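Sharing a chain and its predicted structure for anyone who wants a worked example. Both blocks are below, sequence first, tokens second.
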Amino acid sequence: MRPNVEREWDATARDVRLIYESPVPLNEEQRKLLMALQNPKCRYAVVEGPPGTGKSHSITALVFDAIMNGKSVLVLSDKMEALDVVEDKLSQALNDVRPGDDFQNPILRLGRQSGTYAKILRKGTRDRIQTHYHAAAPILKRSRKKAQEQTEKLRQDINKTVDCLSSVDMEKLTRYERLIKALGLSEFESMPKSDDLGNTLANSLGILNGLEDSAREEILTLLAATQDDADRLTSALRQRLFEARVRESEGAELALLAEFESIRLEHVTWLKNVLIEFKDLRSPIFGYLFKRDEKKALQSALDKRMPLSGIQPPHKRVSKLMDAADVMISIRNEAQAAALTDKQLQESFGRLAKGPVKTAMPDTVLNLPALVSSVNRGGASVFEALLGTVPSLTDWIRFDASLKDTVEKVIELLGLHEAVARAFEALPPLDLQKTQAELQQRQAFELAHKLDGNVIDFVTNKGALATTLRSLIAKKQPFPSDRFGDLKKAFPCIIAGIREFADYIPLEPGIVDLVVIDEASQVSIGQALPALLRGKQIVVLGDEQQFANVKTSTASRAVNQEYVNELEAVFVKNFAVDAEKLERMRNFDVRTSILRFFDLIKHFDVMLKKHFRGYAELISFSSRYFYDRQLQAIRIRAIPVGDVLRFSVVEFTGGPELRNANEAECVFIEEELDALLEEEDPPSVGVITPFREQQKLLTRALHFDSENSEDYKERLRLKVMTFDSCQGEERDRIYYSMVATENHDRLNYIFPPEMGNYYDGNDKLKAQRLNVGYSRARERIHFVLSKPASAYKGTTREVLKHYQRELENAAKLPSVDEVDPNSPMEAKLLGWLQQTAFFAEYASQIEVVPQFPIGDYLRQLDPYYEHPGYRVDFLVLFTHSTGKKVPIVI
């Protein structure tokens, strides 16, 4: 069934993977488990849960999923502490939507010491449940529609986000990066944010590339005259282009301007009028014969304002002068349209009158000063970074090969930037974590409402049965078979010890929809068999790499073998048996755990890989030697590695040595605990030692002889354990008192001689001690030694060397303080990097450079980028055995 689930998961749409109905967050392994159990043919499922990977959280998810789907679930364990954790997690999820933390949730716990049935049926509890139920009803009614809309919107946003990011052209992205490197831009902040800069540069490049050498020289001459001023150059270019257009439009008519010694702009209109008067004075028959005085006056006025060239009097060339005046008026009108000043027009009249005005400049040069000025303003940081200075107007007009090459690359860079950024502009404002948390809270609200309703209905409509069951539970008598369905409906989740549940629940096949057995490695087949008969589906959770049930493992071999022989005889007599089935039958043994037995009959299995308890360095030993480096520590180390891994060598005075005990280490640990008591909020503490004699010494010194013993217990939650008794425990700080000295070292009796694969026998137990013992810490492990780490032998030396390597390798990595404080994902990525098999194998050859500008790169692609999920900036330099460094950008 595992391949089917994997195929179904692979075929699951991305939005469905991310959005699911559950009151608690679920990881991939937990989702696959729930997916497998949807198939009724999946009767037996195995969940391998290494230390700290959330077995109790998985049970919580199983319980809630069963309840929401109208099923009953029975949670069992041989350890009351494990059941306490499950009950606490269920209550915690429900209390998040309750009015107070002291709310008694309708989760039925069976057992003489920790039963909850009587508590739930108290009048005060019933009243509180009923009040909450009725208050929640209208809220749920309103929230259901909102949740549907919110879910649909989230699905759309997820798909749109993936589509947008998938549309990014990776070839363009690669080219973009190469151009950044080729241009020597060290920081992406130097890239301008103006969307028009690329177009402006492209227009400038087109004009500059189209200039002939003569035009370039002409512009440089004008530029020198205007003192490198863009506005003055634009004005000069406008005047020069105007003159060229006039020359082209007026052509030969411009020669008429030579009729005047000087042309005064303000007299052009007057000139036209004077010439009309000249024309009107002339009689067709007598000419100017009778108009000499008027003619003389006009000529005198003309000489004063617009003196003529040559000796021919004006009345002899009135027609030509009239044409010249028309040319002047036409030029003046064009000048007004070209926005020339009067001064410029006056200058142009002078130049045009002297002869042809030629230029190689295209009209487009008129835009050039404004364009390059805009480029210099918008791209100043680029050119300062690339050229050391912003090009002057003269530099732009000259446009040498270096500047041209730079401009072409920047234009391409900006074009790529715009193309890639377009995908990011369409990204919706997605906050998956926040929205998921809101949806999960609503699911918890729905679940609490369902549970409350079931209890209210049970108490209201079946009050007599409720009272009867209270009496039966108190007397530890079984529930009536014909009324158990009513109890299941009222309490779809029942928690009980595996040695007690059969006293209450009728023995009928499939009477419970789902049976969950926690710490299954410590439950024998004999203990689990009654539960297997009662469940339609069975899920066992445990870890073969941790301790099995001590009582069954030490059962009499002779008595046990007698039962096995009888079972084998019956099996052979009643079934057609082949060798394979017979071998599997032999595992039906009281010394075999139900977890190991289920490996033979399972329909589905999954390993929980997410480690939630401690930092990557703390769980690294177990991950490497027991779980093939598959464990993924979720917690990010935000403190120096020296605060996570510590080694202290105490001075052994050489006095009388106690057998398997070390008083010097005991004194050191007591001093450490006293120092912790000085803290306002001290951590919880555990002490683990290989020997019972040292445990007794520590217990007496810390719990009885010390004046701070009460504070150790209350404030530090101190517990002194051996490697054999610490399973299921966890503390913020764990001190390891290793006891051994230079002259007395009996650790080889406790731990295996070397690391390896152990499947049976005493060496397996010794190896399990290592896995269990070195996986209890949440914040720090502190080795207390009486000789140097190098002086130890066997697996103890391997353990110490392992953690010393972790300390050294982590010191090579940047600390959390060195990453971008505004980028929380960087700290997570740093933790994930340390957990990879690649890093574990090649740690000594790896250098990590923090804050490599990937985040800035993304912000460059999208000016409005804010999502913290992508701010991960690391350059990993891997030194190959050949000496070549391979850069890896993450």
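Comments welcome. Confidence is low (pLDDT under 50) at residues 852-872.
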